[in-house]
Amino acid sequence: MKLTRNCIQPWAFFQVHAGGMVQCCAVANDTDMGDFIIDHCQKTARGEPSDILDSPGLVRLREGLLSGNLRPMCRRCFFRPEELITTAELERRVRRHLGKRLPAGTGVDSLDLARSHAYSEMCISFTNRCNSRCVYCVQSVLADVNPYFKMDFPEEYAESTLEFFAAQGIDQIRSCVEGEPTVYRRWCEVTSAFKDRHPHIELYMTTNLSRRYSEKEIELLARYKVLDISCDTLDPDLYARMRPGSNLSLVLDNLQRVKAKKADMGIRGTRISLHSVVSDATWRTLDSLADYAFANGFVPLLGYYEERPNSRAYREGLCRPLTAMPEAEQAEARKSILRIREELLRRGYDLGEFIQGGLLCSLERNLDRRYNRFEPYDDNPLHRAFHRQCPSGSPDAHLDIVYDHDNIAYNGVLFARPGVSLRLEGFSAGHAVVREVSLYKKGCHSTKYDQAVLPGYRKTVAVSGGAFAYAPQFAEGVEKILLEVSEWW
Description:
The chain is an alpha/beta fold. The chain has 17 helices and 18 strands. The two termini are 20 Å apart. The model has no long low-confidence stretch (mean pLDDT 91).
């Protein structure tokens, strides 16, 4: 049994970019999951069947999650919690999701989970164009040179795509992804007509809300179940630096117009969230953002800052992750986030939705000196003995998981430098079967992924007097070694 991400997105969520690319989440693809325009729209127009909802790429991604052999995109995900779960637990959660949404009588226990889905939410990006150039977004440097960021979804397929989504029995349609949805030429017309035909399907939009909207557009925005407003901060000078092209005063005015329209129309039970990408540049303004949100019936949403080499923020050093700050500042940032967390709890909100992925987790690991990446989850004596002796691990030796070129996972004790040894007591076995998995320094071993991993041959090690002792041998170019124990006798 292996560890894997706690994620059922590939079974529950489906997303289409303006250029046709298919995704099942907001993390960048490292495998082709299909082209919606070619593999569905054009096939359907010719009368051919489409398998776009269970494409070969989606099947491979699901197989990786179910087996623990994660795709690189899943390993690097910053949306889902960092704590891993067992593959058996993920399988149970997937079957539970399918059982709730598939027709009554479906034999969920016999389904091939890699080739099954029950989408509750689907997403369409009608445009990749944007009226803003947020410094942490790839549009900050690529929008003027990369034609991808000037794409609009073909108008002739817009309405039929929404109808195809509705036919899947979904609860919600979302519009977002590296573009401003409301700059699409037929945004208001297409969406209003769809909502009139399917009033039970909820609308969800991520938007910068930084346009001058007509009364008809404000009325449509008021009908959205969820409006997620990207704003980062309410400090005017900082906002202008972080979000060139956007206008904070206009955003706040539009927020009040939408709020008033909802009241006039008697619309209740909806949500407007103020979304801050939290970095070392913005964390000090979180309290004022949250205070404004709560006072106006909105909700703060704290996002994880992802460093992207093809953004201005990364190239010019405009902001960094919280974990790159001095420890004292990390501690203060954690206090601010925890204060917002407590208020969200008090108001009954789902924390997993409003404090993304590893934002708080990464701070707590740093500040609390927690280095073990997982807790023992099976009967592996090495994991259990090490965790008893070192419940938090150390920078030099801790429980960890690494992946090789084929995305095969190895877990055990990771030694971070030469000269570190291990001694664990209380073993009744006489021998152990071990394997060293070497992690090479960059440039010392060829790989298309960032981490160069090479598993060695298995060998036996004697257990003397109930004690297991081991000192890994670092070869030239090796930066770290993970010790895997597979058998005892």
